Amino acid sequence: MSTRSDRISADERREQILDAAVAVFGEFGYAGTSTDRVARAAGISQPYVVRLFGTKEQLFIETLRHTLERLLATFRAALPVDAEEASVEQRLGEAYLRLVEDRGVLLTLLHGFMLGSDPGIGPVARDGFLQVFRMLRDEAGLAPEQIHRFLADGMLINTLLATGIGVDAATDRDAADLMECTFGERVGEVLARASA
């Protein structure tokens, strides 16, 4: 029997469930995930997940918010103190690549954006994307053309990483060329990170 001091707080349990949900929603998508699957991944009971989050839709919404908060925190931590070190875009891009080494983060974000027309999930996805835009504009100080390039390149990178096209680069010349024109000399490093 565990003592009271062995128990984790409700906030810690909530974070544990959200972290498990990022992995599960990332792997199975919204349609392929159940609250039971998330509960098993978190090592707790399904009724507890439902008690904390309600429906699967609300669990996904909270998971998407959790992932977006992580993304924004990662970007904020990468803002340069000394502009001589690297450009803001380079720092943000590097931070993003480190973050999406966790495939669950990458795929949860993509699943959320793909559900943009859903009446419950769509507003959260759109608001999250706009939060990223505002952070790039207001906090990172990027100009409109820099924001456009950063977001466009980011979506291309997301697509390449999510589809696993880099895996095909070893045997498909077109896949290799696409990876090369996207990542340049860093293609090997990106492929190593994506497969880690």
From TrEMBL:
Q: Work out whether the entry's keyword set contains DNA-binding.
A: yes
Task: Cite the Pfam families for this sequence.
Answer: TetR_N
Keywords, comma-separated and alphabetical? DNA-binding
Gene3D superfamilies in alphabetical order: Tetracycline Repressor, domain 2
Q: Does the keyword DNA-binding apply?
A: yes
Q: Which domain of life is it from?
A: Bacteria
Q: So where does this one cross the membrane?
A: none
In which residue ranges does the UniProt entry place its DNA-binding region annotation?
34-53
Span of domain HTH tetR-type: 11-71
The molecule here is called TetR/AcrR family transcriptional regulator
Source organism of this protein record:
Agromyces indicus
The taxonomic lineage of its organism, from the top, reads:
Bacteria, Bacillati, Actinomycetota, Actinomycetes, Micrococcales
